[in-house]
């Protein structure tokens, strides 16, 4: 699978895979973005192991956490975020799986990020807290076509996700999920979430950018996502989170 630090990847998944988010076992995607490598016997690897262990303990109670380990050129920074509706136990399970899986997929690079339905985990030798990561992102789309004019549909998507953006920015979890009635017994569901190290203004900027990407990735489709290391948005014509 193609990996890129600067070019977003479009992933085409089947409708049934998108629908069954309850499985949540396999990663959605990962990116190895570190410019420098480390060895298995290096101080950086030791610090990375300590960092991943710290995140497993620190993240689940609130659903988000940052940490760092080491100093100088061997210092490593990391964060993990669980989706806003995910329970503490499911959050811990996801973060616990994410670290070892990412070490297997990116065994040398000093920077990497992995996404699941329930969580994301990122680490780097460069301090990145409080900064928008607009390079490491990808897209998912529902393969079914929408049975209405897409630009009209996108106006409804934008209306819902913009409202959820404002809600997420104002909330302590920087997370919002909601719905919009479309008529004809159709309901649009949406989600917006940022990592909580971002300021309110940066969260809003990140989410607005993610929303603006949707027409180019998911034109004419019933569902789509922009999934990034700092924020993500999603829309579907069916409910997709635990409420």
UniProtKB/TrEMBL annotation:
Residues 1-24 form the signal peptide. GO terms for cellular component: extracellular region. It is found in: Secreted. Residues 26-128, 134-240 form the Gnk2-homologous domain. InterPro entries: CRR_secretory_protein, GNK2, GNK2_sf. Transmembrane segments: none annotated. It holds the Pfam family Stress-antifung. Keywords: Glycoprotein, Repeat, Secreted, Signal. PROSITE patterns: GNK2 (PS51473). Belongs to the cysteine-rich repeat secretory protein family. This is Cysteine-rich repeat secretory protein 38-like. It comes from Rhodamnia argentea. The gene is LOC115752366.
């Amino acid at each position: 699978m193609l990996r890129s630090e600067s070019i977003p990847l479009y992933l085409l998944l089947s409708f049934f895979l998108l629908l069954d988010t309850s499985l949540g076992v396999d990663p959605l995607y990962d990116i190895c973005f570190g410019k420098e490598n480390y060895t298995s016997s290096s101080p950086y690897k030791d610090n990375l192991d300590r960092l991943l262990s710290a995140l497993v303990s620190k993240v689940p109670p609130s659903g988000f956490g940052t940490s760092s380990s080491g100093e100088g050129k061997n210092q490593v920074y990391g964060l993990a975020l669980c989706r806003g509706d995910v329970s503490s136990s499911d959050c811990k399970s996801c973060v616990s799986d994410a670290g070892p899986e990412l070490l297997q997929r990116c065994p040398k690079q000093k920077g990497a990020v992995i996404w699941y339905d329930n969580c994301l985990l990122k680490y780097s030798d460069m301090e990145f807290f409080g900064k928008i990561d607009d390079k490491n992102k990808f897209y998912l789309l529902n393969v079914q076509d929408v049975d209405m004019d897409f630009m009209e549909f996108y106006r409804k998507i934008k209306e819902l996700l913009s409202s959820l953006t404002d809600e997420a920015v104002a909330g302590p979890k920087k997370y919002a999920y909601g719905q919009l009635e479309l008529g004809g017994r159709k309901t649009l569901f949406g989600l917006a979430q940022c990592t909580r190290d971002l300021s309110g203004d940066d969260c809003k900027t990140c989410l607005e950018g993610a929303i603006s990407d949707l027409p180019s990735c998911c034109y004419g489709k019933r569902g789509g996502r922009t999934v990034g290391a700092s924020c993500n948005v999603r829309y579907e014509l069916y409910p997709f989170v635990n409420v």
